[in-house]
Amino acid sequence: KLEYGLKRLSVGEALRYVLNNQPDTELALMLNWHLHKGMTAPDELAIEALEISLMESICNTAGVIIDGYPVTKHQTSLLEARSIIPMVIFELDVPSKEIFKRLLLERKKKEQSLPYPLHNSTQITAVKNSHYHKNIDEIRQYYQEQHQNWYVIDGFHSKWWVWNEVIKNIQMVNKYIQIYLENIKAGKAACIDNLCITPQELISRLGEFGQFCPVSLAESYELIDCSVTESLEFAAEFRGHYYKMSSREKLNKFLENPELYVPPLAPYPLPTADMIPKRLTLSELKKQFPKCAELQGYCPVTYQDGKQRYEALVPGDIKYALEYRNRIYICESNEKLQKFLRLPLKYWNQKLPYKLPPLKEPVIDHKSLWERVVREDEEISEEGAEEDDEDIENILEDEFPKDEEMMSEEDEEQETDALERLRSELGEKYEADMSNLQGIQLSEGETIKPIENSQNPLYPVIHRQYIYFLSSKETKEKFMKNPIKYIRQPKPKPTMPIRIAIVGPPKSGKTTGDKWHARDLEVFVGGMKELVKHRLREKMLQGLERKVGRDWIWAELVDYVKKSLSGGYTGATMVAGQ
């Protein structure tokens, strides 16, 4: 204050200035009305008195230091509404223990000779300190976000150290202001950092490139979005518009030759909004359903940077999704996402090769099959089951009125049969009838292939509390679209076992060939030896049932072999169906 000729001003001094120098004004009368009733002056009147005190000539020429204000968020809003914005705000960070220590030392030096107590007791200081720490975080956040003019000074040091730190920051801000005014007056570009520019003012005065770096766009046609940071460290003003750069190097280039990076000399204009890639959040990505991602979800940046090799096909992560030209792309990492956002023309138009990596689907055995089933029954089973039960009860009441005394055993049997018939129509019976068959192929008139083969993957679906097994993804998708079409069909007729005979001279390949055919057709294969063993097991079982001796079993087996040999089956292989 004394060294630089600034005026020290507190809210109390501003109120006393109005009461002493302007006692007949409306503001002074309202202040006296509150004070005479023993109330504190409202913040609105205090801000108005502060604004009048700031109109003094010394405040407009040398400057002013506002002491201890604001201390609440409401006071901050009132200052903002009156356009009272300090160029620099210093927060003295002092521990509470140090505050009370200094208070005790100060009270020892000064003798209390006044007849009334002062507001410097330990209790009053504790209340003030608690109130200050309760509100200071919100005030600090506001000024840091809106004006970037908040500086924290470690007040634990001596007053001379604090003074040097304050002077250093003031000189830095003053230098920025002087350079800005000189460059703007000369028609040059000027940095706008440390000028208390709000985000709203920045957006209202943005140039033709918005918050994209004009230097990167002109030199390498990179779309670097600078809106991710609120700092104005690399922002500049030229011809009444604001421009944000991505680095200190880009800022220096812009300050040296701003005409090269703005119209009409700028080599490239900013693309339209639909031609600028936009990052998608998970909620925004869900809203794009059923639109599919390009490149089947593989990362376009990894694929392009890997020279479109097979090894460069890496699936993307949905956390790093973006939209460009009404298409969705999914990148592998945040680094790859930023590359696509900067250079979309390099990565957007690609085609996948014919050969793709296999899908990473875990092989699930029958034991873990139930963990794989989609729990659709949790959503619809309760509602669907209740509807089915209501339908059954309504039909039964129409056909068989409930009168237990009048019902005979024949009526009860008919009711049971009707109940089974109705439940079969609703799908319950097909859990047993079609559990080993494919309802899709049966409905479409194709060959029914058994699916109870451990080598074939199963695709189970739950519909109305019942499980249906499908043999492929295609049949599963058909079933999911229209399940009623495939479960409400007549039970298939039983098929006859397939018996195929393959004949040929020894070493002609009949044994090897029939094994391949049997595996494809899922049937039993066996030569004469296997048939004899099979026949022996049958005769032994018959012998046990008839309680006859082994002589009968042996006689039956010899007779079977003689008939087989006389039939010419020595050079043949028998293939029996299931």
From TrEMBL:
This is Adenylate kinase 9-like. SUPFAM superfamilies: P-loop containing nucleoside triphosphate hydrolases. Keywords: Kinase, Nucleotide-binding, Transferase. The keyword NAD does not apply. One of its GO terms (biological process) is nucleobase-containing compound metabolic process. GO terms for molecular function: ATP binding; nucleobase-containing compound kinase activity. It comes from the Eukaryota. The keyword Ligase does not apply. The gene is LOC109391420. InterPro entries: Adenylat/UMP-CMP_kin, P-loop_NTPase.
